[in-house]
UniProtKB/TrEMBL annotation:
GO terms for cellular component: membrane. This is G_PROTEIN_RECEP_F1_2 domain-containing protein. It is found in: Membrane. The lineage of its organism: Eukaryota, Metazoa, Ecdysozoa, Nematoda, Chromadorea. The chain crosses the membrane at residues 20-38, 50-78, 98-121, 133-151, 193-212, 232-253, 265-288. The keyword Oxidoreductase does not apply. Keywords: Membrane, Transmembrane, Transmembrane helix. Its main location: membrane. The keyword Nucleus does not apply. It comes from Steinernema glaseri. Pfam families: DUF621 (PF04789). InterPro entries: DUF621 (IPR006874), GPCR_Rhodpsn_7TM (IPR017452). Residues 29-285 form the G-protein coupled receptors family 1 profile domain.
Amino acid sequence: MANVSTPPLEVRLIGGSTTSLVGTVGLLGNLLLVAVSFENFKNFRKIPFFLITWQMIIGDLLVISAQLTVAVPITFAGYDVYKNATTFPFILSLMDSYGYLCNMLFAVLLILNRFFIFCAPSSLNQFFFGKRSILITLIVTWVYAVCRTSYTTLSGCVKEFIPNKLHFRPSCRSAGSNNVARMISKFGMYESYALPGIMFVLYMVVLMKVRYDYRAFKTRMLSKSSKIEVRLLVQSILICGVLQLEVLAFSFLPKIRVSPPTGLYINLLIGLISIMSSTTHPMVLFVFNMDVRQGMLSLFKNKTSVQILSMSHTVSMEKTAALVNRATMRRATVMSIC
């Protein structure tokens, strides 16, 4: 006789099938983006936007891999298929934790890069996202993510997939008396609430700044020089926005009190949103980024790699700032004459 806590068969079939389908699409999309990026590495590596999104590819692959290898088998089976194993589930849990924190931190860097370009002195952007400093920024972020996640996981604070609930849940049951790991894990929970809020504030400020600049300085040259940066801003907002949706879903949907099996479908929806968040990144670039589309076409048509990126046609941010200053001076002069 089946265990009374085992989810109904139809729920497991629907959940396992949809998770497999969405996860496979996300996996293939990210692998295609890896192929395009590798083929055009010499050109893409010059742009901080692509360097940051490459790190998010790693996070996407880790999250999707954990879903396909943990959530899908357990969902179909209705019980913990890894209950007799120790190392393998531990590694998979670590992968999911790495991927989630990686995506969150690099999403912050992505929107922070846009903020520095539009709303801060160019020297500040060069300090964090310059030709060489961008590598230091990425390395420091990786070291923080890996060290923090490794310590808490090795100390017993892990993510568990609950078979009768069909969702991942953080747990520190194995941490024992290690209060430091518990505190760091709790800090991570608050961090996951705070960072999306910070991202939202930053890109709202950037959007208002861009809107003001376009209204105040309608010079043709300034508009042309900022066009690509605005496009990258929109792509950053789309990528970060879906990640924020994932955080909201993970935080608030489990609090909805409904009778089974509706609650199981809500838990499955949370997992699907997590996978879709990791799938959105390549989809946004393939749909909205002209350079990535050109790279994909060159990959399939066996042509040479992309030689001239659209970003190379834009003037430098120093020149853009100079144009803004000159436009401001001209506007002030006209107003004083009038």
